[in-house]
Amino acid sequence: MGGVTRRRNLAQVSGENAVIQVAWMYFQDGRNQQEIAEALGISRATVVNYLQEAREKGLIRITLAAPAFTTYRLAVELTSRFGLRGAYVIPDEGAEAEEAFLRVVRGAANWLPDLIQPGDRLGVAWGRTVYELAEMVEAMQVDDLEVLQLVGSMATPYGFTAEACSTRLAQRLGARCRNLHAPAILSRATLAAELRDEPILKAQLDRLETVNKLLYSVGTATSDSHIVLSGLATRADLDWYVERGAVGVICGRFIDAEGHQLPGPMEDRMIGLPLPRLVGLEMGILVTPGLDKVTATLAAIRGGYVTHLVTGTTVAEALLAAP
């Protein structure tokens, strides 16, 4: 009886009609290959052959949803062009600046748990991007994780101080927090040197040397940059560095277009992990939410501070369009 049924089904799906029926059942009805084979009394291998024939004859046409795959394409192009190990591109077309910012930060917060693991020593910069990310990241417990504040303290009118960024992120990740209990910058280089030699602070600075991963956003070398508005650098400091090629800021240090730290009057007065120590880490996670940071982002990539990038489609396209 089963043989009769099998012959009847084969007769019903012979020739091109067979190809069309198999394609319909697979793509329109959503049935899998085994279900189709059993329903039509044919082998699974025959189903596979019919589906391939349908493609070759142009009987079916597969399209990809443009918005979703645009972000994937951009991520692939970013990793290829800049030698990154990972990129996460968030759709931001048509979004106002604040909404685009929050989308990118939320994307970074969603990705971060996949990028850290027990035993990591995560160095954290400061700024609104990092602080908002810390607020958005899912609360969890990562064993033997340390979050380390890379830049000393500063007076700032904002809530996202260096201490707040590292402390909040550590709370969300269930990690130990290592704050840096010293000013970010002092009035004299000699005073900064003396402070670095103090046993308590020296131990804190030595611990920063254990950092294997970095989470940060680059700053701009403009008058409205947080480094100026926070009082870390004066307008005169900014002008001095810009005249010598500064295009961005990483952890309070000015960098040129190639990502090299620019030596200058601030360096010897600062307390924190030296910028060269952040080059070539196991992982450098850069979050870039705005077009104003494109130039600084390119510099950070060239300088070797970036292995993973989170940004929006608008910035991604601008990065890829850069010479």
Can you tell me the CATH architecture of the largest domain?
3-Layer(aba) Sandwich
Give the H and E element order.
HHHHHEHEHEHEHHEEHHEEEHEH
The CATH topology of the largest domain comes to Rossmann fold
The tally of domains stands at 2
Principal-axes shape call: elongated
Mean pLDDT, nearest integer?
91
Radius of gyration: 27 Å
Largest sheet: 7 strands, parallel
Query: Count the helices. How many?
Result: 14
- Order of strands across the main sheet: 1-10-9-5-2-3-4
List unreliable stretches of 5+ residues: 1-13
Helical residue percent band: 40-55%
From the N-terminal CA to the C-terminal CA, the straight-line distance is 71 Å
**How many E strands?**
10
Instruction: State the name of the first-level CATH class of the largest domain.
Output: Alpha Beta
User: Structural class per helix/strand content?
Assistant: alpha/beta
Beta-strand level of the residues, as a percent range? Answer: 5-15%
Descriptive labels:
single chain, 323 residues, alpha/beta, Arc Repressor Mutant, subunit A, Rossmann fold, seven-stranded parallel beta sheet, three-stranded antiparallel beta sheet, 14 helices, 10 strands, disordered N terminus
